[in-house]
Fold each of these.
Amino acid sequence: MFLSEKARVISPSPTLAVDAKAKRMKREGYDVISFGAGEPDFDTPDYIKSAALSAIDRGFTKYTPVGGTKEIKNAVSDYFKKQIGISYEHDEITVSNGAKQCIFNALYCLIDDGDKVLIPSPYWVSYPEMVKLCGGIPVFVPTIEEGFMLKAETIEKIIDKQTKVLIINSPNNPCGCVYSKEDLQHIAELAVEKNLFVISDEIYGELIYDDAEHVSIASFDNMFERSLVVNGVSKSFAMTGWRIGFAAGPKELIKAMENLQSHTTSNPNSIAQSASAEALNVLTQKGDGVIKAMVDEFSKRRKYMVDRINSMKYLSSTVPLGAFYVFIDISETFGKQCNGSTIINSTDFAQLLLENYHVAVVPGVAFGADNYVRLSYATSMENIKRGLDRIDQFTLSLK
Ligand SMILES: Cc1ncc(COP(=O)(O)O)c(C=O)c1O
């Protein structure tokens, strides 16, 4: 076999089996309701599409600077100034093919073999794999006992001399929690004291509910030089397929990330850059009308979903304040049977729900939390109602 050691350490996605089965059942004609979506179910707004069409008409179809055009760097700079109160210069900003590439590039430029990277758990599936690909060691920081909140005291107990980077993700996928200003302040102080670099993945920063506030850890004292803020247009503007993400931080790191990108993918798509610049400029200059409409709709669905889940036998969930996921504790179903099969983990729960009631959810084991499943409410209210009716029947059938 020709596969490298590097390729061998990449784990297959644990969500794949359930996902593949859901797709197969759909093809076979079953009415499968899926709560697996990691992207808004809304269309990209028309004014953003028009900006892309105009870029094509203008012939803006050639290579651009590797880390993005002046136009998009201006737009990102204005956006961050408004959203998180930090002014970044152009050489402190870079643009990539999605937030995902920004995070990978950053890790590659920060980690040497054997360096440890702290990842709050439950976590987004790609963080540990990216760390391993870069030669680092993922170290998980538990948050479940703190209601999914990341606490400086917990981090402090885990840090050792090899620890170099901390990844934080607020609003959080999969938990939907939003870290408080106070907690972030303590984490920032610890990062300064222990000389940690922080990658702050703020991709869901626009999708917050009730009185939650999005605060960036980069905005605290002495954090500018030790943090990279990552965001993008995927989730905020329903633009997952356009593949534009951006990052801002110290210029040495940005330069290294751009050098790396220059030898891998080069610039992100020129047309998508133009469209994304328009998306950000309209938001900073005219306000968040489009996002607000989406957030209002998400919030309605979120409340409905949490109320229904918490009224069901064996299931419970906290109220998420960000992103578009509800993370459900299913541990009380363990040991119960459905049609003769016993549930002992989140994969069993998801498989049995899919096979018997044709509802697809993501098993929590994918996020390092086997007592949970994740439901996305980025799907229509009608689907949510029908899907939850079926989950209710499923839990009632357990013996
Ligand atoms: C926490 C988190 N970070 C980053 C990403 C990737 O975003 P992008 O589409 O910009 O690559 C996702 C997408 O699911 C995510 O959930």
Amino acid sequence: MYIKITENNAMQKVAMITGCASGIGRELALELAGLKWTVAATDLYPEKLRPLEEAGCLTFPLDVTNNRQIGETVEQIIDLCGHIDLLFNNAGYGLIGPAVDIPLEKLERQFRTNFFGPVEIIHKVVPFMKARGKGTIVNMGSISGITPTPFAGAYCSSKAAVHAWSDSLRMELKPFGIKVVIVQPGGIRTEFGQHSAETVSGLLKPESWYTPIEPYIYKRANTSQEKATPVTEFCSRVIRKIISENPPPVVRCGKRSFFLPLYKRVLPENLLDKMMMKKYGLVQLA
Ligand SMILES: NC(=O)c1ccc[n+]([C@@H]2O[C@H](COP(=O)([O-])OP(=O)(O)OC[C@H]3O[C@@H](n4cnc5c(N)ncnc54)[C@H](OP(=O)(O)O)[C@@H]3O)[C@@H](O)[C@H]2O)c1
């Protein structure tokens, strides 16, 4: 049972965040609540949001692949809070596995979660932001969308789509006072690696060309967690930037977020391919 936010606190800043059950989403919600924002924290499994409720957040069940639920949740938040100042499209996961072994339905689910879900939420939220002539939309990308690796074609391409779409959106919404920011994290310490590894299990058939190097596929699933940046450090930096008067179009931070995009820019493609193929065991198949 929620208390409707009234005209007395209509100036209250309101954030809607997706994927708040763990990792970055949970930390963003806690930090913004600590800054006295009204936080509408959403996730696939609402029971996992109880700690956020205890920290003062409003919580809502939301599977970002469910268009009907997206519409209902945005309406509920607007009804309770009156407006949304900040939409943070954070929910996502990494589908890991060889490109030729990933069935189309798994690839579609990856794109529905990481790309089409955020698009649908934005469609539902922007009319309210336009009516007020202000608002900030933050889309979660990844340095993997800039510098793809083997065994992450599904994930990397979904994040590359987020980057390109957000770039267009930023220019199109600027005339209406709506800001669009892309966050491109490097490796951040969360449950992301574990969730990625879960997508590998059962994917590889014994006859797969890549079965002999299966450990490297798991290695790719866990790459983000190698010497990863603490999630609190990452979220404080991101929040400082996105709630500033003039947020930058792209916020890139976390482990390897400087060097990986740099490699992509300066190294010849063939050299970068060789480095990646060695790291992920593909040279052993040659
Ligand atoms: N950690 C990194 O190194 C890293 C690097 C680059 C980009 N990112 C991006 O950062 C975002 C957050 O990831 P994280 O590191 O915090 O990983 P995480 O701990 O695995 O958190 C991901 C969150 O997304 C939620 N989620 C997944 N599918 C969903 C759906 N269909 N609807 C609603 N929520 C859904 C998960 O909910 P459940 O747990 O309830 O399933 C979970 O709360 C992702 O978009 C990820 O791609 C992370």
